[in-house]
Amino acid sequence: AWGPYPPVDSNGTFQRWEGQLDEVGTYSVCWCGADGHSCAIPEDFTVRLGKMRISERVDCELTDWWVAQDCDRPCGGGDVYLRRAIRRREAGGGLPCPGMDGLAMTQKCNMEPCPLARVDIARTEPATVTAGSPFVVHVEGHWFDPS
Fold first, then answer.
1. CATH number at residue 76
2. pLDDT digits over 16-55, tens only?
3. Which residues form the signal peptide (predicted)?
4. Of 42, 80, 91, 127, whose CB has the highest number of CB atoms within 10 Å?
5. Do 66 and 102 reside in the same domain of the chain?
């Protein structure tokens, strides 16, 4: 409990005390009435200022990371998007929860090189290409990387 201790900081408009309450609960905040009081016993503190609630210290608690968006490439290096959520908010002066930027992150994934492309069939349309005429090349195979 607090008592008649001198303030740790003071000027003409404010005074600041430091104290420690180790028990969770609601406490009355009182001021010593001074006039004729020694301010040495609890009964001298007659001016009621209000109530103060001391809460249990609870740190922010987060979930584990989960994959919110799978890797955007099967090989050759991509990005996977991870998220986590707040399971319990801080209270009583506990460690605070991160902002939105601390609840999401991107990591590199599928860093192994892609296999070399294999062309099985290549053909043109029309089958005979002539100078000055448009044509399309169709290529079929495996492991093409369109990016």
1. 2.20.100
2. 877 777 888 998 888 877 677 677 787 888 888 899 888 8
3. none
4. 80
5. yes
Distances (CA, A) of 35 to 25, 45, 46: 31, 11, 11
pLDDT at 2 over 70: no
User: Does a structural domain hold residue 2?
Assistant: no
Strands 47-54 and 25-31 come out as antiparallel
Confidence (pTM): 0.56
- Tell which residue, 68, 77, 73, has the closest CA to residue 111: 77
Closest to 120 measured CA to CA, from 134, 101, 138, 147: 138
Q: Identify the domain containing residue 20 by its residue range.
A: 9-54
Q: How many domains are contained in the chain?
A: 2
What is the per-residue pLDDT across 46-73, written as a single tens digit (0 to 9) for each? 888 899 888 889 999 999 999 999 999 9
